[in-house]
Design goal:
mainly alpha, 61% helix, 0% strand, globular, Cell_div_Cdc14, Cell division control protein 14
């Protein structure tokens, strides 16, 4: 797997758009291979005319390829999210004319996938440089496709990470989101995604607390034997980290007050919708 990642990283580090595109495809292929490992063969799938069942993150835990991937993500050298963020930054700086828009969207989609496969990588967004990168992509100068992909990426980056939400707030993320939401120039699809984000923001915060059940990969990277540095630290200091995260959460009422400054009169309606329709299926409540 190191050799596959090395090839992809070499292309992602290139100054050639075609090589970057190839690198993104290589990362996508690797993630797809991990997610689809153990699924029925194409022949059987064609015979049954059925899509393979969805697999949850915990379902991937026994798969050797996934465990190897997860273990590699614990080190800086092979962390895919970090490489994708570096590539994304390069594309944003040099893509002012729209020539790299599709590559930017592809990079954002892959960042979403990596953060879902390796939740500990979300800690990268406690750094203001990475959070600011997402906020910059929400500026009106960017295309609706980029804005929509960014909003989804932002939700994934903040999910179960109260510290990340506090960084988002400290960098005036609420002002950025609500200004785009109120703008008459913002299209319907982007406003729909922004509404979803506001629903998400107003849901109760749940810190990502490691579970004692060592059979579930969702409990954290300490489940992967032999993981270097960071995993061992998390394994030994899980309780302290959990207390810190719990102390950094805000109540729904506190977040409502923050949001009311930018969207007066709207937040109560959003909370009513959350209570009545449960747009996230109750998963986040």
């Amino acid at each position: 797997m190191e050799s596959l990642l090395s090839l992809a990283f070499d292309n992602l580090s290139s100054f050639d758009g075609s090589k970057i595109k190839k690198g993104l495809r290589q990362v996508e292929g690797l993630l797809a291979q991990i997610c689809l490992a153990g699924q029925c063969s194409p022949k059987k799938q064609g015979e049954n005319q059925q899509q393979p069942p969805r697999r949850m993150l915990a379902d991937l835990s026994p798969d050797p390829a996934f465990r190897e991937f997860f273990k590699l993500q614990e080190g800086f050298e092979w962390n895919v999210a970090q490489r994708l963020l570096t590539t994304l930054d390069w594309l944003v700086v040099r893509g002012g004319d729209g020539s790299y828009d599709m590559l930017i969207v592809n990079a954002l989609d892959l960042i979403q996938g990596v953060l879902l496969l390796h939740p500990p990588s979300r800690v990268l967004f406690q750094r203001s440089v990475h959070m600011n990168l997402l906020l910059d992509l929400l500026e009106p100068i960017n295309s609706p496709a980029i804005q929509c992909a960014t909003i989804i990426t932002l939700v994934v980056a903040l999910l179960d990470m109260p510290q990340n939400i506090r960084v988002f707030e400290a960098l005036d993320g609420l002002l950025t989101v609500t200004s785009l939401f109120k703008s008459r120039e913002t299209g319907r699809e982007v406003k729909f995604r922004l509404t979803e984000f506001l629903y998400f923001y107003l849901t109760p915060e749940t810190p990502n607390i490691p579970k004692p059940d060592r059979t579930s990969v969702i409990a954290g990277p300490e489940l992967i034997p032999g993981s270097p540095g960071k995993s061992k630290l998390l394994a030994s200091g899980g309780r302290q980290r959990s207390k810190s995260e719990s102390g950094n959460t805000l109540s729904v009422d506190a977040k409502k007050q923050h949001l009311d400054r930018y969207l007066p009169g709207v937040v109560d309606e959003l909370l009513k919708d959350l209570d009545t329709y449960k747009p996230f299926g109750g998963i986040l409540s």
